[in-house]
């Protein structure tokens, strides 16, 4: 399967002139949206869902930001940074919605900067160190495919705010998935060394697939994408198994706390500072 065929088939249903991350429009996705929690929706459950999705995005954005000045090419550095900015934008909207409905009135900064690692609800795959470029690509392919499937369904959520956030995110995540798929094929079908690294990256990501499917069952969608990409790249299909525990329950690896310390350091050192 050619790289172009992978692009065309994964892009089906997301036809758009947009190919750049952070280029999906700058209109406020919540303009004119009623922020009242509709009858029949549990506000606590809605807030918890928003926080979990926001934590996934924030932690992923922080890891992607680590590629700035370290990516193999300037173009890829900019692309990864912009994908991170897309996710950061999603996190801000989701944290704000959580603060509106959970009764605390917390703003996005309170969620991002003033919670400890045990209070975060992101999946563990997001918090793992970057390792090499191939690993970051393998992780991005999985997480973007999983999140895209989730957001496509959330676009019909009865909460109009969450639905609007998800609808905007679908356009961004479709690009993220495509970017990762193209690089996965390029590396897998490239040199002997790039193939070896991409195969190793798949093996490193595979143990965490079970957690994703437990946190939100998008198994069919994610497996279909991985099968298509691995076939084009000449790579074996990753084997996934049930994963014990979950970041959704506050169970994290030893890597999250130092990542948050770097993210939160300035805000905690100067909690009352303003621009």
UniProtKB/TrEMBL annotation:
Residue spans crossing the bilayer: none
Coiled-coil ranges (or none): none
Species of the source: Streptomyces shaanxiensis
InterPro entries named in the record: Aromatic_CoA_ox/epox (IPR052703), Ferritin-like (IPR012347), Ferritin-like_SF (IPR009078), PaaA_PaaC (IPR007814), PaaC (IPR011882)
One family name in Pfam for this protein: PaaA_PaaC
Name the UniProt record assigns to this protein: Phenylacetate-CoA oxygenase subunit PaaC
Listed SUPFAM superfamilies: Ferritin-like
Domain of life assignment: Bacteria
